[in-house]
Design goal:
Elements: H1 10-18, H2 24-42, E1 45-47, H3 50-65, E2 77-81, H4 108-115, E3 119-124, H5 158-165, E4 171-176, H6 182-188, E5 191-194, E6 214-219, H7 222-232, H8 250-256, E7 262-266, H9 276-291, E8 295-299, H10 307-322, H11 341-352, H12 355-368, H13 374-394, E9 400-404, H14 419-423, H15 430-435, E10 439-446, E11 452-459, H16 464-476
Parallel strand pairs: 2-3, 2-4, 7-8, 7-9
Antiparallel strand pairs: 1-3, 4-6, 5-6, 5-10, 9-11, 10-11
The chain binds glutamine (GLN).
């Protein structure tokens, strides 16, 4: 049993820790051993500190011995995408620009996880500044998909997804701007939740596109996602876009909220480009809900075909502004070759940013420039409103939407050299960010070559409780979440 601790759920482990059948140190050691065994193949981490993790685990055991009443995350090893600030831990965004940066403070989610007693273990690889869909844009190294190490784990939170799939953390956090939690979750066969915009504070999250970015968990089960969500959600004075709303007990609501539900199938999500095996798996999931007595309705989101275009205008515009702070002066990479102050800016940014990041800064600067602003940026914002309206119209008739998470299973490392081919990976996830909605990806089977497939469920704003209940209904009737990659 001990050698399988790394694949237990938070729900199970918290019971075993509470009964003192297991100590937090034993659990952390099991996760460290597992990581050392598989990390040479997976390469999910940018950095990790075993001594620090074990001392956090020792503190968790001491709290338990002192009889403190502890929450379900106390003593649980949680990994963070290398874009979320933790005091005194490296924070690189997988960029040369921040290669030697150590965060001087805790982001809000880190602070909340610490308060819940979680052991913050490791910094996870990602696409540089979260721009990408395969983690190949990382400036540090490539992370592999644990199910087939010649394939990508997805991105941009590829390390966060791979670490859970490979048993290198019990749960992790990622960020999702256009699909970066759901897409790698689907490709690595784990649960990935992108919460409603505003439910989780972004304070201490390195910004990519501030009106789209949202932090969320990777877990083995929907119940674990509910536990993670509970601990990180809620209004925060430090993030004015975080929403003041009463939080339900997400875990309890999983049992309270029962179907049958009304579910919508957006016809635009089942067209050209959808891999037949992915389509068939989603059809089987739809059949499951129908058999449960759910009313299944075809709906239309007519502006779907503009999602990618609107996203790559808005996200790049915001990125060009957010990334202006990396100037080689205040912090981050500083060129040694510069001749004068102007040259310092040029050289530092030229040396510090990778190709994709530069491409986006250039594009974003262009769409915001005078003379083009109305034609691109303003128009994209108007389209964004129409896209959101499509979803809200659909929610007049249904409780949630069912779609594939990705058009295809994981592809080979290096297979998509053309940036546009990579942008298309997010065709089913990007609309959700533009509309600010919650969505979850849950495993829904395997391709004929043994790669995981993902089902996306999209909910009403701030209706994570129902969304997770709907997802759990499917999960519990299948055993996909109990299967793990072999090494
Ligand atoms: N793949 C998308 C992009 O490159 C989404 C990334 C994300 O969600 N952070 O922008």
């Amino acid at each position: 049993m001990a050698d399988e601790l790394h694949y237990q759920t938070i729900a199970n482990l918290s019971v075993r820790l509470a009964k003192r059948e297991l100590s937090a140190v034993e659990l952390m050691q099991a996760v460290i051993d597992r990581t050392n065994q598989v990390e040479p193949k997976v390469r999910a981490f940018n950095s990790r500190n075993e001594v620090d993790a074990l001392s956090q685990a020792t503190a968790a055991d001491a709290r338990r011995s002192a009889g403190e009443s502890l929450g379900p995350l106390d003593g649980i090893p949680i990994g963070l995408k290398d874009v979320i600030a933790v005091e005194n831990q490296p924070l690189t965004a997988s960029s040369k620009m921040l290669a030697n940066f150590v965060s001087p403070y805790d982001g809000t989610v880190a602070q909340k996880l610490k308060r819940a007693g979680a052991v913050l273990w490791g910094r996870l690889n990602m696409d540089e500044f979260a721009m990408g869909s395969s983690t190949e844009n990382s400036a540090t190294h490539q992370t592999a998909n644990p199910w087939d190490t010649s394939c990508v784990p997805g991105g941009s939170s590829g390390g966060s997804a791979a670490a859970v799939a490979a048993g290198q953390a019990i749960a992790t956090l990622g960020s999702d701007t256009g699909g970066s939690i759901r897409q790698p979750a689907a490709l690595c066969g784990v649960v990935g939740l992108k919460p409603t915009y505003g439910l989780i504070s972004r304070y201490g999250l390195i910004a990519f596109a501030s009106s789209l970015d949202q932090i969320g968990p990777f877990t083995h089960t929907v119940e674990d996602a509910a536990i993670m969500l509970q601990s990180i959600a809620g209004h925060d004075e430090c993030d004015s876009t975080s929403y003041r709303t009463a939080l339900p007990d997400y875990r309890d609501e999983l049992k309270q909220r029962q179907g049958p539900w009304k579910l919508g199938i957006p016809k635009e999500y089942f067209g050209e480009g959808l891999d037949p095996e992915v389509g068939a798996a989603v059809e089987r999931a739809i059949a499951h809900y129908r058999a449960q007595g759910c009313e299944i309705k075809e709906v239309s989101l007519p502006h779907t075909r503009y999602c990618l275009d609107a996203y790559y205008v808005i996200a790049t515009a915001e990125a060009s502004s957010n990334l202006a702070r990396y100037d080689g002066v205040r912090y981050g990479h500083r060129s040694k070759a510069a001749k004068d102050i102007t040259d310092l800016y040029f050289q530092s940014r030229a040396e510090g940013f990778g190709e994709e990041v530069k491409r986006r800064i250039i594009l974003g600067t262009y769409v915001l420039s005078s003379g083009y602003y109305d034609a691109y940026y303003l128009r994209a914002q108007k389209v964004r409103t129409l896209i959101r309206q499509d979803f809200l119209n659909a929610y007049q008739e249904v409780d949630a939407l069912i779609t594939p998470t990705t058009p295809t299973p994981a592809f080979k490392l290096g297979a998509k050299a053309d940036p546009l081919a990579l942008y298309l990976c997010d065709i089913y996830t990007i609309g959700v960010n533009l509309a600010g909605l919650p969505a979850v990806s849950v495993p829904c089977g395997f391709s004929s070559s043994g790669l995981p497939l993902g089902l996306q469920l999209i909910g009403r704003p701030f209706e994570e409780a129902s969304l997770l209940a709907i997802a759990r209904d499917y999960e519990q009737a299948h055993d996909w979440h109990q299967r793990h990659p072999q090494f």
